[in-house]
Design goal:
Number of helices of chain A: 3
Structural class of chain A: alpha+beta
CATH topology of chain A: Thiol Ester Dehydrase, Chain A
Oligomer: heterodimer
Distance between the termini of chain B: 11 Å
Largest sheet of chain B: 2 strands, antiparallel
Distance between the termini of chain A: 32 Å
Number of strands of chain B: 2
CATH class of chain A: Alpha Beta
CATH architecture of the largest domain in chain B: Orthogonal Bundle
Radius of gyration of chain B: 15 Å
CATH architecture of chain A: Roll
Structural class of chain B: mainly alpha
Largest interface: A-B, 16 and 15 residues
CATH class of the largest domain in chain B: Mainly Alpha
Number of domains of chain A: 1
Order of helices and strands of chain A: EEHHEEEEH
Shape of chain B: globular
CATH topology of the largest domain in chain B: Non-ribosomal Peptide Synthetase Peptidyl Carrier Protein, Chain A
Largest sheet of chain A: 6 strands, antiparallel
């Protein structure tokens, strides 16, 4: 008998690990890009590169968990606007993407995030980190939407996939959540 | 030194061209944020955050966009704002020109109250206190 909604959840997680997490301030997550992932064989055949759309998703997941933690995951945090997204470099298999999210503002209604994306790779055999792009985005706390629209009580945003990931690194990074 | 209305307008215009990706010349004083400049609900939060940053002000919840008015049966009946609701709205939004909405208080048209001038007048009350 499944008594939560985990069986209904599509596997959709585009970050592997949190490296830094400061509640209400900033978070850094990483994602290893691997040829074991199906999507790289289609994007593109013979020339696998990480899709920019999925890097936006990775930034949204990093940022969304950061915004969720600011209110102890009580709110349903939904990506509502991408103010800016610029990419200056392709990301290839074997490289590690670094998502850095900074909270610009957060209130009862939502939050604004400034994000930067870089990649850890090797150049001439030497490890290095190179800028990939910037993504600024906004999140809505949808239970507090202006129209008064109602949503289910169950927090369908912060499902077990996200919470298990967060819990793993919450202990390692000694993250203290707000009590309210 | 107090800011003039022209100075406030210039900065509000900057905020709107960034938040709504519109051209400078579209941001006229009487332009309606939703109908003319294409603002959606999340844009209002974006604009609020950017106004706070640009003018170093704090916009408390419900001050620029009034809350709990449209779900109150005393204030709204049959999709229209009652005289009592309009009186309450005037108290809550002294910075807004409500003339058009008073003439036809259909709540679906309430968003038309938010013009560029409404933002400028609101910001004026915050920066020159």
């Amino acid at each position: 008998m499944v008594n939560d909604h985990s069986a209904l959840i599509m596997r959709w997680i585009w970050i592997d690990k949190f490296e830094k997490f400061e509640v209400n301030v900033a978070a850094v997550a990483v994602k290893n890009v691997s040829l074991a992932e199906d999507h790289l064989h289609d994007h593109f055949p013979g020339f696998p590169v990480m899709p920019a759309s999925l890097m936006i998703e990775g930034m949204a997941q990093t940022s969304g968990i950061l915004v969720g933690a600011a209110r102890n995951f009580k709110e349903k945090v939904i990506l509502a606007k991408i103010g800016k997204a610029t990419f200056s470099r392709l990301v290839r298999p074997g490289e590690q993407i670094v998502y850095s999210a900074k909270i610009v503002n957060v209130n009862e209604t939502g939050a604004a995030i400034e994000g930067t994306i870089s990649v850890r790779t090797t150049v001439g055999g030497q490890p290095t980190e190179i800028s990939v792009g910037t993504v600024d985005m906004m999140f809505s706390h949808i239970d507090n939407n202006m129209s008064g629209m109602k949503f289910p009580d169950f927090n369908f945003v912060f499902n077990s996939q996200f919470m298990e990931l967060f819990e793993t690194y919450r202990r390692e990074l000694n993250v203290q959540l707000p009590t309210t | 030194m107090p800011m003039t209305q022209e100075e406030v307008f210039a900065k509000v215009k900057e905020v709107l061209t960034t938040a709504l990706a519109v051209d400078d010349d579209e941001v006229t004083s009487q332009a309606k944020l939703s109908e003319d400049l294409g603002a959606e609900s999340i844009d209002y939060l974006d604009i609020q955050f950017q106004l706070e940053k640009s003018f170093s002000i704090k916009i408390p919840k419900g001050e620029l966009t009034p809350e709990n008015l449209f779900t109150n049966p005393e204030y709204v009946q049959n999709g229209r704002m009652t005289p009592k609701g309009l009186a309450e709205l005037k108290t809550r939004m002294p910075f807004a020109d409500l003339t058009g909405f008073e003439a036809d208080p259909d709540i679906n048209k309430f968003r038309d109250v938010f013009t560029v001038d409404t933002l400028v007048k609101y910001v004026m009350t915050k920066v020159n206190t």
